[in-house]
Amino acid sequence: MQAWFSVPFASYLLAPVHHKALDGIDPLRMWKDGFRIIKALVDEPYVQTADMMDYHGEMRPMNYIGSGYVAQVYTYINTYSRCAESPPDRDAFLRKMVHRSLPMAKRSPSLFRYQLLPLARHLADVLPDPETHTESHRNVCSLATEIWTAYLRDIVQARPPTPNLALAPLRDYCKCDDCKQVNQLLQDPTQYSYVFRAGKERRSHIESELWLMHGQPTPYKTLKEGNPHALVINKELNFVHEMELHEWNDKAKEAQEALEECPNLVVGKMFDASLLTVLPEDSMRIILGDYFSVLVLLKAPEYAMQALPPTGSTLTPVSGDASTTTSAKRKASDDGADMTEPKRSK
Questions:
Q1: What integer pLDDT is reported at residue 337 of this predicted model?
Q2: Which H helix or E strand runs over 137?
Q3: Distance (Å, whole) CA 156 – CA 49
Q4: Is 268 left (phi over 0), alpha (psi -120 to 50) or beta?
Q5: Which pLDDT score, from 0 to 100, does residue 163 have?
Q6: Under the phi-then-psi rule, with left for phi > 0, alpha for psi from -120 to 50, and beta for the rest, what region is 269?
């Protein structure tokens, strides 16, 4: 035998706001009935739970529960469990809801986006006090880490490895600083796009050297924004890799936005230090952004942080399409005169 019990229905029974709208019904009786449903979900192996959905005129159970209902029931158990004849285990209830949704979410990213990540966000708002409810606090934090671990490992995944993009340097008879800097990035195996901002004469010199050494395989164009103008130099990427990288950047951005919607997941110390080891460090730095350093300080002070590479002022590496590079909006100059006198090697 299998029975389907509704978490939303239990939430309605437990919500005080609904009690006021129902004249003649004893709130205590509604609380008891709501808790019976939740306790059955937790304790009885034959009881399953799901919301219902209309599937071409037929009501079918879904394989997940709305995150708001789960968080509400979790809070009601803590607040009104004294009214229950036999209080349900709120941590066991929460664990069952998460573990019920995770297997399908790994096959359907939308479930992470609309159910499990919002659930972690809701739980950050109702996190038990670690002083008075130490075990429950630990359990909630553990489940939040589990949700994000599965999300990063199975949905976002690691950044696609960049193929070796090193190119032969410009001709070695020219010893100017501009050629030296361009050569440094031409020979970089991972950097595939960068911007050289300089006056017209210096840009023309680099264009000539690039053409003589590489021809079309190293496309370049002038970006007529700011003063002086900029020479955008791109290395060619494999089309498949470029598509994979674009797709991954979208997923990383989505993860960043999900964290920004609930900074308490990090600053509230809900994540375990193990989250830092789910993916390679370079991927985690990109995905977590500033939160990476916060997690290191809060959760894993022994974690070795590498120094960020210095950025130059003349040659500015960029990721992705260089057309998206931001610069100060100034009136475009025909010749892009230098703002400062370039340094030349003796």
A1: 41
A2: helix 134-150
A3: 28
A4: alpha
A5: 72
A6: left
Residue ranges per domain, the chain? 3-156, 244-299
132-177 pLDDT, tens digit per residue, is: 889 999 999 999 999 999 999 999 999 988 777 777 777 777 878 8
DSSP letters along 71-96, please?
Answer: HHHHHHHHHHGGGSSS---HHHHHHH
345: left (phi over 0), alpha (psi -120 to 50) or beta: beta
pTM reported for the whole predicted model: 0.65
| C-alpha to C-alpha distance for 105 and 210, rounded to whole angstroms | 49
Instruction: Give the pLDDT confidence score for residue 72 in this predicted structure.
Output: 87
Strands 220-223 and 230-234: antiparallel
Nearest-angstrom CA–CA distance, 339 and 200: 12
Residue type, 229: H
Q: What is the pLDDT of residues 19-67, one digit of tens each?
A: 666 666 777 888 888 888 888 888 887 776 656 666 677 766 666 677 8
Query: Would you tell me the crossing angle of helices 27-43 and 67-80 to the nearest 10 degrees?
Result: 110
Q: Contact 41/7 with Cβ under 8 angstroms? A: yes
* DSSP symbol at 277: G
What is the secondary structure of 106-137 as a DSSP string? Answer: TT-HHHIIIIIHHHHHHHHHSPPPTTT-HHHH
Cβ atoms of 156 and 178 closer than 8 Å = no
Give the model confidence (pLDDT) of 281-291 as tens digits: 999 999 999 89
Which residue is it, tokens 């070795």? Answer: 304
Least Cα distance to 320 among 234, 226, 214 occurs for: 234
Structure tokens at 187: 């020979």
